[in-house]
Design brief:
single chain; 5 domains; 25 helices
Amino acid sequence: MKAWESIINTAMLGTDKPTPAIADLPEEVVVIANAIDAAATLDKEERYLQKAVVVYNYRQSGFVPFQKNDLPVNKAAEETKLYCTPVAAGVLNTILDEENDQLLQLWLNQCYKAGRLLLPEALPAVLEKAQKDIALRPVVIECSGNRGIWLSKMNPAWNWFCTLADEELWQTGTPAQRAEVLKCLRKNEPVKALEWLQQTWEQENAAGKLELLKAMKVKSNIDDLPWLESLLNEKGQKVKDEALHLLKSIPGSSVIKQYEDLLSQSVSLKKEKALLGLTTKTSIQVKLPPVVDESIYKSGIEKLSGPKSTVTDENYVIYQLISSVPPTFWEKQFEVAPVQVVEYFEKHAPAMVPALANAAAKFEQKNWVPFFLGQSMFYPDFVAMLSAREQEKYLLKALSNDPQNTIAHAIRINDEWGTEFAVAALLKMANWPYEYNRGFFTRYISLIPVGALNHIENITSQQANLQTTWDKTRNHLINLLSLKQQTLKAFNA
């Protein structure tokens, strides 16, 4: 408004300068301005101030929006699914107020499974959440319906809502989107994913090559070997390192064969006659050959154990090698079944047993896992390879020996804990309420089952001086679990 600009200038420069001209004033203010100018009792300053007050209040009254009657009608298509119930919507509002992304993910998953949609009034808040948390986006799209598609077009920040075909996204998407497409394609069509990457490889920059190569970890297999082996000649060191890392995870690769060749010379099973030839004495001999190819150490095997280590350099090298080859190698090397291989190592080379267990986990040899479960040592990588019942049993055993370390590994599990383990873990957590605080339970509420609600009131800290702190944390946990319970009930009623 030109009149207001003139008033501001006059305030800064003085009333000797021109005040707003009648022609610059809005039509509704002109009559009042003329009356002010006609008042003989007012001086320049008073006239200026009174006009300023009138114009200021006029501005505060707002503006009439521009009218354009020929705009096309733009509205969302009719929904084909039902909206969620008022009860479910109420739980969602509470979760949004709580600002807990884990519970929001649970609510959205339940909504999707029930075939329901978010209420229209909740869409903007949920879309804002998904804008910041990419993991929420797929299920948010599913639960938003046609109104979500319509609304997403109103805000460029929600352009992720409009999905493109994988092939189009692969050709035109951002580096992060292309890497995600490659990961998804690897799950179902690994050969096709490899073909796509090979076709565009030479056009990728160094950073893009690295990120796309990381996506090849998904279902890496023997079909990838020829191409991955060729990448060892790439110019970029980081790309070469990532290719080598992938090769070390695929049985049959050149680097694993090199490790196996060295192990066949370094670890042997000796059977000798004893007691006048009536019995056989078995032992494992562990010793590196006099000459070791230096390329072994360039592939990531460390040559020295370190100044404070109690392990010899030679045994340390062999330990790393055993950890880096599929355990099936030992079936051929010793010509025995897996259970016998483990027994031989336990009896004759116990220091190498953890290395053998590491290899079973690295190469996902599930049939080898049961042979290590009876040992006192806890192997965290086995947890994800066990059934739910075996998993809980294994974690409970480890929890009694090393609670904090066990909990640290248990929070990496994707699936919800069993009630028995959750309660046992909470009993331990109550003794460290500053470590397992409100923030901890906010982050990991998805792991704690609703069944734990029946036990939490009776869980107390063994240290009286920590009880008040634990009480506050426990109340927060009860609130989160109650919201989790309400969510499940809302969609399963």
